[in-house]
């Protein structure tokens, strides 16, 4: 028998609401008939108890520390797969055959070059512009350069826009870095893998030969995989909401990038490195931790809205972090030693244990990115690059659903009641 929840209240009785079950995770109460039956809405700031959509892409169980992309545990993907294969999985729902993988890789790799006019577009930015400010602007501007794939009612247009975003976002990300540094832009190299090509576009200079280090390429590829999707977080929900109005994919992804920029979301790994700089030395850690416990500030890179157990991505990233520090001989670098000391203290401190605050993926990814020579101002850009596939998969899921409605939350109004206008001379 179908499950229901029955509501009784003042002015209404026996309002039955269906209970829906997914393939995994908690049941949800379908409240679509709530307003009609009770005359009331629900109040859920921060959407902590609200499922905003149905999705088949990613599953998270925060209590158990599980993360699955299309049913595959993140640990298995991180060990056996690579970023572009994960992209295919997120977009199409299945792992590719060898032939599909080769074709998909070829399409993405061969479309990394940008319309040359975008180079001039960059020159409009101040040299000291934050790379995320340029990312929001340039990714949004893609809709002005690639106008032949904007009819989102056509699956083929959506697919072309998806390829373009996957291919071109790394090129834009590297250009944001090069522009800020005053370095010449590097054209993509089609003989390299997706991630090695990104490292080439970031670090190669005309005066030297650059061959990406495979250990570091693998580490960055893993960061991309771990950040590829995370169900209905703030930026993904923003992309879906923007998409629900029929906005074009480039504009929707720009909205996601804007949301990711905040320090409580994608800005967290940047905040971790700033925090390490502020602490400065291992000897200051106890004093810093006292301030955290007195709630003067937060320990950045710790805690998560959904994971109340160890973030599964953090476990994998910690291993990658050790590999990278070893490869680069940075195990005794003061900054990284300080980070490891913070991690050790927090994992054993009752304050953090009782509140179930564990290191999140950003704690370790910040350290890895810093060790790779990527400046702090680029951290959120790297996150945006990796998350583009998640955003676009969710956008596509929403755009393909013929029954989807425009997103329109309600509110609890607590402002002034009706009042009459007072002319300025009488105020
Ligand atoms: N340091 C110290 N105390 C913390 C921290 C932290 N990083 N995070 C949460 N707390 C405490 C809060 O003070 C609160 O204590 P209280 O119950 O005594 O009032 C309790 O833990 C619960 O905190 P909330 O803010 O209610 O938890 P919420 O789930 O809303 O917040 C968030 C999650 C925003 C990620 C939070 O843990 C935080 O600010 N962390 C630091 C920023 C960070 O690392 N963000 C990355 C998120 S991951 C991502 O975007 C990929």
Cα-based radius of gyration, to the nearest Å:
23 Å
Task: Classify the helix fraction into a percent range.
Answer: 40-55%
Largest sheet: 3 strands, antiparallel
Amount of beta strand:
5-15%
Would you mind describing this structure in some detail?
This protein is mostly helical and 427 residues long. 51% of the residues lie in helices and 6% in strands. It contains 18 helices and 6 strands. Strands 1-2-3 form a 3-stranded antiparallel sheet. The chain has a 3-stranded antiparallel sheet with strand order 4-5-6. Strand 2 (12-20) and strand 3 form a beta hairpin. Helix 6 (131-145) runs antiparallel to helix 7 (155-181) and helix 9 (214-226) packs antiparallel against helix 14 (312-327). The radius of gyration is 23 Å and the shape is globular. The model has no long low-confidence stretch (mean pLDDT 94). The protein binds acetyl coenzyme *A (ACO). Acetyl coenzyme *A binds at residues 264-265, 268, 292, 295, 298-305, 355, 357, 360, 362.
């Amino acid at each position: 028998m179908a499950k229901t929840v029955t509501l009784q209240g003042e002015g209404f009785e026996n309002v039955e609401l269906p209970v829906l079950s997914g393939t995994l995770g908690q049941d949800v109460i379908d409240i679509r008939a709530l307003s009609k039956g009770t005359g009331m809405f629900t109040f859920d700031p921060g959407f902590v108890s609200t499922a905003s959509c149905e999705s088949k892409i990613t599953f998270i169980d925060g209590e158990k520390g599980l993360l699955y992309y299309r049913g595959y545990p993140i640990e298995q993907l991180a060990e056996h797969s690579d970023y572009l294969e994960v992209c295919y999985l997120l977009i199409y729902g299945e792992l590719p055959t060898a032939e599909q993988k080769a074709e998909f890789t070829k399409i993405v790799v061969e479309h990394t070059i940008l319309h040359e006019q975008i180079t001039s577009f960059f020159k409009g930015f101040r040299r000291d512009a934050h790379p995320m400010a340029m990312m929001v602007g340039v990714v949004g501007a893609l809709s002005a350069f690639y106008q032949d794939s904007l009819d989102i009612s056509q699956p083929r247009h959506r697919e072309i826009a998806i390829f373009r975003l996957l291919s071109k976002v790394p090129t834009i990300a590297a250009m944001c870095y090069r522009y800020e540094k005053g370095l010449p832009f590097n054209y993509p190299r089609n003989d390299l893998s997706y991630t090695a090509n990104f490292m080439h576009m970031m670090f190669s200079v005309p005066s030297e030969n650059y061959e990406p280090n495979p250990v570091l390429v693998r580490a960055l590829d893993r960061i991309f995989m771990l950040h590829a999707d995370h169900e209905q977080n703030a930026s993904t929900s923003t992309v879906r909401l923007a998409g629900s109005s029929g906005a074009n994919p480039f504009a929707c992804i720009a909205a996601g990038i804007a949301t990711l920029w905040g320090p409580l979301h994608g800005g967290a790994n940047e905040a971790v490195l700033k925090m390490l700089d502020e602490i400065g030395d291992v000897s200051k850690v106890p004093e810093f931790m006292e301030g955290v416990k007195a709630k003067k500030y937060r320990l950045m890179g710790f805690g998560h809205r959904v994971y109340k157990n160890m973030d599964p991505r953090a476990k994998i990233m910690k291993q990658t972090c050790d590999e990278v520090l070893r490869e680069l001989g940075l195990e005794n670098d003061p900054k990284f030693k300080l980070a490891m000391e913070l991690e050790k203290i927090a994992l054993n401190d009752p304050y953090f244990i009782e509140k179930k605050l564990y290191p999140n993926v950003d704690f370790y990814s910040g350290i890895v990115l810093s060790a790779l020579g990527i400046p702090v101002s680029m951290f959120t850009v790297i996150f945006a690059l990796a998350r583009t596939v998640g955003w676009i998969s969710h956008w596509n899921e929403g755009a393909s659903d013929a029954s989807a409605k425009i997103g329109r939350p309600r509110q609890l109004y607590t402002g002034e009641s009706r009042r009459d206008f007072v002319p300025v001379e009488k105020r």
